[in-house]
Amino acid sequence: MQKQQDHPTAPAAGPPVVPESRVPSPQSRPSGLIVTADDFGLHPAVNEAVELAHREGVLTAASLMVAAPAAADAVARARRLPSLRVGLHLVLADGAAMLPRARIPALVDAQGRFGDNMALDGARFFFLPWVRRQLEAEIRAQFEAYAATGLPLDHVNAHKHFHLHPTVLSLILRIGRGYGLRAVRLPAESANSGGAPALLLPWLRLLARRLDRAGIVHNDAVVGIRHSGAMDENMVLQALRELPGGVTEIYLHPATASGSLIASSMPGYRHTEELAALLSPQVRAAVERLGIPRGGFSDLFPT
Fold it and tell me: Can you give the CATH number for the domain in which 144 is found?
């Protein structure tokens, strides 16, 4: 089976941008490295890997799926790891919803799960007001569930980078402010790693511009989309050798088991190899040689 990647389908046009606030000066932007594990809470094997990679490796952050089966275990581990920066991995595709199906019947199937037809769902989010109201309720519920954990909110990103959709982004910005939103991942693949598909470049520019206008900080580049599920030691070392300027986020999907044992949509993912990369002495040495700040968004963009 072909490995599924995290590139989203180009979204439909969305509602007007949020009101502008101060746009950060490009000259004032910091440099640094964020190493993130996505899908925190998806499976106990993911949670084990996150804890191990943070305690003994180079992992600095994790993105939590609040409605996932092992979310409670993930939260318990995060509370034992005060230096791990945790954010909300907002799930609106290919995953479990927070609200019951009776509240969001237009969004989920009989098992309370979102589908994976992002192009169709993106059009529905924009064109159908009742679908958009249900979407707003679900996004608010996920922010509320994260707030209930008591964990500081380091960042927000959407599963499969659905926040590239302007409607989704508008709701994240509007709702997130009430829950301490300060940082959002910009899923712009580093040019050194192949760059983003041309079709997505306008949406990436729009996303960056809207975040800047809203006063929400973001990374300058990301590594991990093009080789999603295959960020082994060699790939991570290459990324570190070719790290661009500014703030780069390298994200992975580590786990102590691999492929369909974690999720049916990840049959080709090499989770254990990605964990091995995070624990690699060669990777640690390469990171330390960079001599740049490391951590989460809250470390690199302090208030």
Answer: 3.20.20.370
